[in-house]
């Protein structure tokens, strides 16, 4: 008895000792990493300088920091903005081992700089990895200024609506800075290689070590204020109507779908003030600001699509449920027929925004559902509601439309909409809904690119449907607000 207690005591003591040792060792390791990173990161980067010099035109370079998680966005910025305005003096600066290879494969200029351990996954706002990645922007601009270049730094979730470069005309200014709801936005600004701008970037970069829990914007803004107050920095505050952030452009500007409330004065759109990469991409797509044609997203000649509408308002309590069921039905039918679902426009019952209060307002999927969750299950199987109006979709697809079908079913929906004249009725031969075989028989032969349904509230015979698909649908829908939190 006594001996075992002694043994227990000994074991306990060695455990504690080991634990302390590990903690000290870990701390030491962290110190070393920080120290090495720090000394290394003050060095001017000769290779980066060379890359910048070879890309700059008239002493100006357009810079973007990028990692693999944001590849899709980087390609979109390139396609919507750099290509469109013939901006050739850009350089993507890559922070992981793979991104520059991916971009170079698309003939997009990229310099491989620092390897971030979280580079391969997209980081959402306010995470630790996100903060660390943002700090790199400061360093990149600093390096450009050190070699005498003027630099426009642009985040990847921006689209240029005009060429911004001719707009920066204040020759005596250090920086021209866009607005982020009352603060400077470090995601889009123009800097000149003047002493004030260099000092600003050095101080901000230095702060990234003393205050690693800040984003570069949080670090930059107080320093801008202090230097401005001391007369050491001359700043142009870019007009927030011309350089709108996500809140100004989408929310206050009441822009839900492509073509809503055109903005002739806008020079850029910054797709921020929304959580998650998936939601940003989807919002760009619905707004007509997406031109990334990877895997022939738009330009495929042989891909087949399915459309349906949500014509009926079932009232506040029921509409959401029936619309979600109709969307699920569309994905099941799409899966059976190997057709990509083109999303409908939804009623706006769950939307509290001003623009949703109009009587005929319609909402996109991201207004009520979490796009990140949705994409885990269904990315690649759907297209945004404005898809068929995109310039890059072949005319042959746009013109190849089936008759409009209506699947009858009296059992699942209370008061199903009456099909208007001219639609082709499909009457299921089982009261619980249309069967997989019926769907194949009725539509499997259709050669049109776009198979059209009047609506899809009707029930299917779910007991026959593919279990994987049903499971995906179970997991895909998470309620959310338009900013995608919580
Ligand atoms: C930033 O830190 C470096 C290294 O400690 C120092 O040499 C430099 O003077 C600092 N710059 C500013 C503007 O504080
Ligand atoms: C960042 O860390 C400092 C201490 O280093 C702390 O005072 C501050 O509250 C932290 N800020 C955030 C946003 O976590
Ligand atoms: C399904 O459609 C895709 C896209 O058009 C096509 O590449 C694929 O071959 C089709 N699959 C089958 C089994 O037909
Ligand atoms: C309809 O389908 C159900 C379930 O598969 C089946 O039990 C029932 O017999 C079918 N009814 C008819 C009329 O075929
Ligand atoms: C295709 O159409 C033909 C002729 O109408 C029909 O005999 C055949 O069963 C259909 N096949 C499929 C898979 O729907």
Automatic annotation (TrEMBL):
<dbReference type="InterPro" id="IPR052636">
    <property type="entry name" value="UDP-D-xylose:L-fucose_XylT"/>
</dbReference>
<feature type="domain" description="Nucleotide-diphospho-sugar transferase">
    <location>
        <begin position="87"/>
        <end position="284"/>
    </location>
</feature>
<dbReference type="GO" id="GO:0005794">
    <property type="term" value="C:Golgi apparatus"/>
</dbReference>
<feature type="transmembrane region" description="Helical">
    <location>
        <begin position="7"/>
        <end position="25"/>
    </location>
</feature>
<dbReference type="InterPro" id="IPR005069">
    <property type="entry name" value="Nucl-diP-sugar_transferase"/>
</dbReference>
<protein>
    <recommendedName>
        <fullName>Nucleotide-diphospho-sugar transferase domain-containing protein</fullName>
    </recommendedName>
</protein>
<keyword id="KW-0812">Transmembrane</keyword>
<keyword id="KW-1133">Transmembrane helix</keyword>
<dbReference type="GO" id="GO:0016757">
    <property type="term" value="F:glycosyltransferase activity"/>
</dbReference>
<keyword id="KW-0472">Membrane</keyword>
<dbReference type="Pfam" id="PF03407">
    <property type="entry name" value="Nucleotid_trans"/>
</dbReference>
């Amino acid at each position: 008895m006594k001996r075992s207690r002694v043994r227990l005591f000994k074991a306990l003591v060695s455990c504690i000792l080991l634990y302390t040792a590990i903690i000290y060792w870990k701390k030491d390791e962290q110190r070393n990493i920080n120290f090495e990173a720090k000394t290394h990161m003050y060095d001017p980067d000769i290779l980066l300088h060379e890359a910048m010099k070879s890309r700059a035109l008239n002493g100006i370079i357009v810079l973007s920091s990028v990692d693999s998680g944001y590849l899709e966005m980087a390609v979109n910025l390139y396609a919507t903005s750099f290509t469109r305005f013939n901006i050739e003096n850009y350089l993507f600066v890559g922070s992981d081992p793979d991104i520059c290879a991916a971009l170079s494969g698309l003939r997009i200029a990229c310099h491989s700089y620092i390897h971030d351990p979280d580079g391969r996954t997209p980081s959402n706002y306010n995470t630790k990895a996100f903060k660390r990645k943002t700090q790199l922007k400061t360093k990149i601009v600093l390096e450009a200024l050190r070699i005498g270049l003027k630099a426009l730094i642009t985040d990847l979730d921006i689209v240029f609506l005009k060429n911004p470069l001719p707009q920066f005309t204040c020759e005596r200014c250090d920086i021209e800075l866009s607005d982020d709801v009352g603060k400077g936005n470090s995601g889009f600004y123009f800097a000149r290689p003047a002493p004030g701008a260099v000092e600003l970037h050095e101080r901000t970069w230095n702060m990234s070590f003393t205050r690693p829990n800040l984003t570069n914007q949080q670090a930059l803004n107080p320093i801008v204020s202090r230097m401005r107050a001391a007369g050491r920095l001359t700043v142009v505050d870019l007009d927030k109507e011309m350089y709108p952030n996500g809140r100004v452009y989408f929310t206050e500007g009441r822009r839900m779908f492509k073509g809503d409330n055109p903005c002739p004065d806008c020079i850029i759109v910054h797709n921020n003030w929304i959580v998650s990469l998936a939601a940003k991409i989807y919002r760009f797509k619905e707004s007509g600001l997406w031109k990334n044609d990877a895997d022939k997203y738009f330009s495929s000649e042989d891909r087949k699509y399915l459309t349906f509408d949500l014509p009926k308002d079932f009232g506040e309590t029921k509409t959401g449920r029936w619309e979600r069921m109709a969307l699920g039905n569309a994905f099941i039918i799409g899966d059976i027929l190997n057709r990509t679902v083109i999303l409908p426009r939804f009623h706006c019952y769950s939307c509290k925004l001003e623009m949703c209060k109009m009587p005929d307002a319609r909402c996109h999927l991201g207004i009520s559902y979490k796009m990140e969750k949705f994409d885990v299950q269904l990315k690649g199987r759907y297209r945004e509601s404005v898809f068929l109006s995109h310039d890059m979709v072949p005319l042959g697809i746009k013109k190849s439309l089936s008759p409009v079908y209506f699947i009858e079913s009296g059992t699942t929906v209370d008061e199903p909409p009456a099909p208007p004249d001219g639609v082709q009725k499909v009457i299921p031969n089982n009261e619980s809904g249309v069967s997989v075989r019926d769907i194949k028989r009725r539509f499997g032969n259709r050669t049109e690119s776009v198979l059209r349904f009047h609506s899809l509230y009707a029930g299917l015979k779910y007991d026959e449907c593919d279990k994987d698909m049903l499971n995906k649908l179970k997991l895909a829908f998470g309620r959310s607000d338009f900013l995608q939190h919580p």
